[in-house]
Amino acid sequence: MKKILVTGALGQIGSELTMNLREKYGNDNVIASGLNKKESKVIETGPFEIVDVTNAQQIADIVKKHKVDWIINLAAILSAVGENKPTLAWNVNMGGLFNILEVAREENLGVFTPSSIAAFGPSTPKDETPQDTIQRPNTMYGVTKVSGEILCDYYYEKYGVDTRGVRFPGLISHETLPGGGTTDYAVHIYYEALKNGEFTCPLKKGTKMDMMYMPDAINAIVDLLEADPSKLKHRNAFNVTAMSFDPEEIYREIKKRMPEFKMDYNVKPELQKIADSWPNSLDDTQAKKQWDWNPRYDLSAMTDDMLEKLRKKLDIK
Ligand code: NAD
Ligand code: AKB
C-alpha cells in the first residue's frame, strides 16, 4: 500500500487527483498539502498539511510524520504567471523540485513530477513532436520544465530514486480553474459559453496545441505510478496527448451544442508568443508502448461532458 504526499494539492490537477487517489489507496494514505488552507473537498476528506516546497525542512518533517513513500509534486508556477514572475517560477519549480528530490534520496521515496509541452521550444519539430528531440524552450516555465526532467533523470541514474513523469498538454477540467497558463482559454471558453453565450479568445485562429481532459490526465498519473519500472525506458518525461485543436475547432464543437454561442478575438501578444513556441501535436507512441497509455476523451466527448458537468455546477439549464 502506497503512502502518498501530494504537493500543490489544491490546484487544478491536485484537487481531482487527491480525491481519486484517496478512493484507490484510502483517505489516510493520501496526505494533501498546499501553501494555505481553503475550502475544499480535499481538506474535508483526509489529512492536509501546510507545505511550501521551497522549505526543505517542512517537506522532510511531513514525510517523516506520515511515513510517506511517494511524493507527487504538483506545486508549480505555470507559464503565463511564470513569464511575469520568472524568479518565483525558478524558485518554486526548480528549488521546490530539488528539495523534494533531496528528501526522496535521503528517505528512499519515489517522486512523480509532471513536465509539460512547455519543455519544447521554437526549434522543436512542431508536428508529431517526437519523444526524444530538440528542447530549447524560450519561457522561464519551459526552462524549469526541461531542467526538471533532466534533474529527475539524474536522481534516478545517480541515486536510484524512482522518479517518473509525463509531459502534459493543456488540461481541461470543471472542478478547479487553471492556475495561470497559456492553454487556460480552453477551460474558460466553456464557462463563458454557458454564463454569457460569448467568449473573447486571447489566442489567434490556427494556434494548435495538444490538450487533454482531466479524467485522462488522472489516469496517466495513476497508470504510470503503477507501471512496472523494468519496462520504463524514459521514466520522467513521457509525451502524452489526447487531442490537438485550435480556437476555431473548440468553438465549433461548442457551437454545435449551443448554436447561439459567439466567439471573437482579442489576441494577447505575450500569450500568443508562448503558444507559438509550443508543438502543434505530440507523438505519444512511447507512453503507449511502455505503460499502455490510452486516452478515452476526444474533443467531442470532452465537450459533451464539460457542458453537462458545468451546467450542474453553475446551475444553468
Ligand atoms: P495549479 O497552478 O493549478 O496548482 C499549483 C499549486 O501549487 C497551487 O495550488 C499553488 O498554490 C501551489 N503552489 C505554488 N507555489 C507553491 C509553493 N512554494 N509550495 C507549495 N505549493 C505551491 O497547477 P496545476 O495545473 O495543478 O499543475 C500541476 C503540475 O502539472 C505543475 O507542475 C504543472 O507544470 C504541470 N502541468 C499542468 C498542466 C495543466 O494544464 N494544468 C499542463 C502541463 C503540466
Ligand atoms: C500552461 O499553459 O502553462 C500549462 C501547460 C501546458 O503546461 N497548461
Topology:
Layout: E1 4-7, H1 14-25, E2 30-34, H2 41-45, E3 48-50, H3 56-66, E4 70-73, H4 79-84, H5 86-107, E5 110-112, E6 115-116, H6 140-159, E7 163-164, E8 166-168, E9 170-172, H7 185-196, E10 198-201, E11 209-213, H8 214-226, E12 238-239, E13 243-245, H9 247-257, E14 262-265, H10 269-276, H11 285-291, H12 299-314
Parallel strand pairs: 1-2, 1-4, 2-3, 4-5, 5-7, 6-8, 8-12, 9-11, 10-14
Antiparallel strand pairs: 11-13
Bound molecules: nicotinamide-adenine-dinucleotide and 2-amino-3-ketobutyric acid.
Overview of the molecule:
The protein has helices at residues 14-25, 41-45, 56-66, 79-84, 86-107, 140-159, 185-196, 214-226, 247-257, 269-276, 285-291, 299-314, and strands at residues 4-7, 30-34, 48-50, 70-73, 110-112, 115-116, 163-164, 166-168, 170-172, 198-201, 209-213, 238-239, 243-245, 262-265. It is of the alpha/beta class and 317 residues long. It folds into two domains: 4-169 and 214-239, NAD(P)-binding Rossmann-like Domain (Rossmann fold); 171-211 and 242-280 and 296-314, Alpha-Beta Complex (UDP-galactose 4-epimerase, domain 1), CATH 3.90.25. The chain is globular and about 55 Å long. The N and C termini lie far apart (43 Å). The structure holds nicotinamide-adenine-dinucleotide and 2-amino-3-ketobutyric acid (AKB). Residues 7-8, 10-14, 34-35, 51-54, 74-76, 78, 92, 96, 114, 116, 168, 170-171, 178-179, 181, 183 line the site of nicotinamide-adenine-dinucleotide (NAD). Nicotinamide-adenine-dinucleotide binds at residues 7-8, 10-14, 34-35, 51-54, 74-76, 78, 92, 96, 114, 116, 168, 170-171, 178-179, 181, 183.
